[in-house]
Amino acid sequence: MNVVMGKAGRVVIPVSVREQLALSEGTPLEVVVRDSIIELHDRRRKIDSILNAFSERLKGDGGSLVDALIEERRAEAAREAVHDPAG
Predict the structure, then answer these.
(1) Are 69 and 58 a contacting pair, CB within 8 Å?
(2) Are 58 and 68 in contact (CB under 8 A)?
(3) Can you provide one Gene Ontology molecular function annotated for this UniProt record (predicted)?
């Protein structure tokens, strides 16, 4: 599929691609350049992917992401207190 860059560097994403990926006006996209290749990433899907990765990490232990992050922060604070004589 070919597209042409217009005024002000604008590129129109073909309707078939927008429909396939459920993209609409206002969808936040991230532009990534790798080895002279331009990639567009749907930031909503990227965020969902990160959240899913955290959820997978917690699967099986019955805990919540919030509880795990709080526990992680408490452990870090305890380590910092040991290394900080003023703390």
Answers:
(1) no
(2) yes
(3) DNA binding
- Say how far residue 80 (Cα) sits from the centre of its chain: 29
Which range among 55-59, 71-75, 79-83 has the greatest average pLDDT?
71-75
Q: What is the spatial distance between Cα 6 and Cα 11, in angstroms, rounded to a whole number?
A: 6
Q: What is the DSSP string of 7-19?
A: GGG--PPPHHHHH
Indicate the number of domains in the chain.
1
Cα–Cα dist 31/28, whole Å:
10
Q: Where in the sequence is the domain holding 42, given as residue range(s)?
A: 1-87
Q: What is the DSSP letter of 67?
A: H
Place of tokens 């990433």: 41
